[in-house]
Amino acid sequence: MRCPECDATENRVVDTRDSRGGHAVRRRRECGVCSTRFTTYEHIEERNLYVLKQDGRTEEFDRTKLSRSITIACTKRPITQDEIEVMVDLILDNLTNQLESEISASYIGEIVMEHLAPLDRVAYIRFASVYRNFQDIGEFQEVVRDLSTEEERSVQSQNQEEFPF
Ligand SMILES: [Zn+2]
Q1: Is residue 121 part of a domain?
Q2: Do residues 140 and 129 lie in contact, with contact meaning Cβ atoms separated by under 8 Å?
Q3: From ligand 1's centre to the CA of 9, what distance in Å?
């Protein structure tokens, strides 16, 4: 597991505890090089789901990717990583209850937005404004990472009329 700050692989676990009602184990780790602390989660692998992308390609659903996208949308918002993981579980429950094992990327995006909307307006708008354009979680991550605070503000004001709440 690479350090999010310096990319080093050397780290030690400083705290381990149950998370999400015992469905996951949460570990606090400390980087052996720069001492940055970060959190990892261990959970049972879900049944294989496939994402049908806009361009017609299919790829295996990746829980980590989805969780990371939501985490990025929630940057500097008052939402804990545990809350995000609980949300990802609910989204996953929803997806695994679908009859099809192939689910369109845009449908996943809609489900994420449904969950984000009541939780945090800014995170929702970030996700919605980027995801609606790109329909791809990978591309989405790149774009959100590049968003400056100023751009976020303008994105917010641009979208205010579209989202009347
Ligand atoms: Zn480090």
Answers
A1: yes
A2: no
A3: 8
Compute the distance from residue 131 Cα to the ligand 1 centre, in Å. Answer: 30
pLDDT for residue 152: 52
Protein residues placing their CB within 5 Å of the ion ligand 1: 3, 5-6, 8, 31, 33-34, 36
Domain count, the chain: 2
Tell me the pTM.
0.56
Low-confidence ranges of the chain (pLDDT < 70): 45-47, 99, 132-165
pLDDT for the residue numbered 8: 95
CA of 40 to the centre of ligand 1 (A): 14
Tell me how far apart the alpha carbons of residues 119 and 87 are, in angstroms, rounded to a whole number.
10
* Co-location of 36 and 65 in the same domain: no
